[in-house]
Amino acid sequence: MKTAISLWGFLGLAAAVLPEWNSFPGHSPAIENRSLDEIYAAAKREHGSLVVLWGGDDVSQGQSTIDAWKARFPEIELNLTVDVSKYHDSRVNRQFQRTGSAGADIAVLQTLHDYPRWKKEGRLYPYKPAHWEDIWSTIRDPDAAFVPYFIFNFGSLVYNPNLLKKSNVPSTWKEFTRPEWKNKLVLTYPNDDDAVLYLFSIIINQYGWEWFDTLLQQNVKWVRGTGEPAAEIERNNSTRSLSFTTSVGGNLDSIDPKDPIMYWPQTGAIFASTPRPESAKLFMSWLLSDEHQKTFNGSYLVRKDLSSTAGKIWDHPSSSLTQFSTFMENREIVEWWKLQFETFIGTAQGDIDLLQEGK
Ligand SMILES: *[C@@H]1O[C@H](CO)[C@@H](O)[C@H](O)[C@H]1NC(C)=O
Ligand SMILES: *[C@@H]1O[C@H](CO)[C@@H](O)[C@H](O)[C@H]1NC(C)=O
Ligand SMILES: *[C@@H]1O[C@H](CO)[C@@H](O)[C@H](O)[C@H]1NC(C)=O
Ligand SMILES: *[C@@H]1O[C@H](CO)[C@@H](O)[C@H](O)[C@H]1NC(C)=O
Ligand SMILES: *[C@@H]1O[C@H](CO)[C@@H](O)[C@H](O)[C@H]1NC(C)=O
Description:
The chain is α/β, with parallel strands linked by helices. The protein is 33% helix and 13% strand. It has helices at residues 2-11, 36-43, 60-72, 85-99, 114-120, 194-207, 209-216, 228-234, 277-287, 290-293, 323-329, 331-345; strands spanning 50-55, 78-83, 106-109, 147-154, 157-159, 186-188, 221-223, 242-243, 253-255, 262-270. The model is unreliable at 1-20 and 355-359 (pLDDT under 50). The structure holds 2-acetamido-2-deoxy-beta-D-glucopyranose (5 copies). Residues 162, 234, 236, 251 line the site of one 2-acetamido-2-deoxy-beta-D-glucopyranose. Residues 235, 237 line the site of one 2-acetamido-2-deoxy-beta-D-glucopyranose (NAG).
């Protein structure tokens, strides 16, 4: 705790009373042993809506979570806002500097470098949700300051089967440089999303900048956000039929290339400043519960005791699950790659519909 206090002083941040639940070496919280209904009962005695910052770039990416929560815990109002992780974290950092409070109870984000720093600064509330021992240990914080709930990827080849035959979908990154892919691709600016950036770094490390030079001749439609490519190729009258910087949904289909792709554990944490710790615990335990995890069947799961039709992430021939956070923490490298792409395709143009600057 002393470390955290001096760090706060050093950073010149607002003085705040360190909560007694703050984690320090040798002091680890016990694993949640209450049922969801028991936590719900405790949470109902708290006041105000539970504010959750949810990383994404399309409102639909938060809707299923909101709907499922409402159906399961109708008496705890959930205020879940979707925005790109890099804007959520910027607002949290600003709010914290100004007021000493995060301004939200929970953050579930792609910006994995935030969590170790927030932990070091004493800004997270350590909590071991039920099933803690079933979460892959390499992707959860040993002191329980943050936990993954879902494994995302970019690099799966997402296509509209009404516009493109499965047998014509490429099987390697190299094939994207063939002339037939001219005017067919819609991709997210790699310099606007660090996970997409990491994917491009993997491909270029494998095939060289020559690959990117050739891709640039394909008249790619570059867009902001990773929901937008799916929305574009879902339109049956679209000239674009394929993307690898988006997620499958609706009428779309996807297959993985033979080449490496990227994975990351979408990670969540409770802020130490939460005035609603029981509601926050309920949310985290629910995200990791059997009943919620089974809605992700077909994807790789963060819990090793549950089986998915996708199999286990570690059996994937090129799993990069833990490498993304290493990449993210090296901001110098991230910046290096970003500017490489910016010198080719310029700054990201267009709006992410969710942009709410000044909020
Ligand atoms: C549950 O954990 C609490 C501490 O967090 C402990 O006091 C209690 O005895 C535990 N209950 C059971 C049934 O293990
Ligand atoms: C939801 O929380 C945000 C803070 O993230 C706040 O600006 C907004 O007013 C809240 N909305 C409601 C309906 O409470
Ligand atoms: C595209 O066409 C297919 C088959 O004709 C149809 O099932 C689907 O609903 C259409 N999608 C959209 C977004 O209109
Ligand atoms: C494609 O379909 C959408 C509706 O799904 C429509 O708004 C748009 O005008 C169409 N575009 C073309 C070029 O036909
Ligand atoms: C996922 O589906 C498979 C096949 O139906 C089933 O065996 C498995 O138990 C399911 N996993 C979960 C977590 O529900």
